[in-house]
Amino acid sequence: MRKPLDNWTSIKRGYTWGVPTFYNKFHQGLDVLTVANTPVYAPCDGFVKNTFGPKGGNTATFDSTSTTIRFLHLKNFDKRGIVHEGDCIGYTGGNPGDAGAGLSTNPHVHIDVKVNGAYVDPETY
Known about the structure:
Blueprint: E1 30-33, E2 39-41, E3 46-53, E4 57-64, E5 67-77, E6 81-83, E7 88-92, E8 108-115, E9 118-120
Antiparallel strand pairs: 1-8, 2-7, 3-4, 3-6, 4-5, 5-7, 5-8, 8-9
């Protein structure tokens, strides 16, 4: 399985799994701090659907068998539909004023993972 961003182990983290944030008591994902326009890659073969929401902004939802991974606050999308491991599916954004920023204040990508419908820690998945 490929990590969704290059240099995964050395990239700084923002809010991590389970910590309280200003908007909820338990953060159900991982915020990875990036520069804008950092490519986000498909972790394995699967299917990507692109959506937009007021809190998450541009969101790529990746599905593979029993796993769903969402990538929120993207600046734009690169691919949708059937994807293969390592395909670029979008680019990070998150700057205030970006169409995909949602509630974010700095460039980052929020990643959350569900396995069989239950959220799991993206760092240990």
